[in-house]
Description:
CATH class: Alpha Beta
Oligomer: single chain
CATH architecture: 3-Layer(aba) Sandwich
Largest sheet: 7 strands, mixed
Structural class: alpha/beta
Amino acid sequence: MNRRTTLLSLIASASVLIVPHAGRAAALPAMAVYRNPGCGCCEGWVKHMVAAGFTVTVEDDQDLAARRQSLNIPAGLASCHIALADGYAFEGHIPVADVMKFLKERPAGAIGLIVPGMPMESPGMEAGGSPEAYDVLLISANAAPAVYASH
């Protein structure tokens, strides 16, 4: 083998090792989380997202209400943080499986998903107590909020 053949073999071998990881990264978009300043439960929710493979940045936001309004998220369904990923909004303590399912399905006209309030034992709100039943709501541009999942 000459030097050129050896070099091409090494590049081909390296690409086999890189490709599976690149495919996974492409499947999960980067996520920017805006939270009430200093909110600890938001950090708990972010840990769930990171554990699932999302790359997440977190920024304190002094005016989540204005951000919510700019995204057409109903104020009455507020929580303590808003995540933006791949053009969609995710408000509150939404389970990772629901976020991933939503990103795979990409419902027509959807703005995103919301879990209003801060239900006990939802992701990031774990305290070891009794779980509170809650719904994940689908928010669309031209429709009333609808139940996307129940927990």
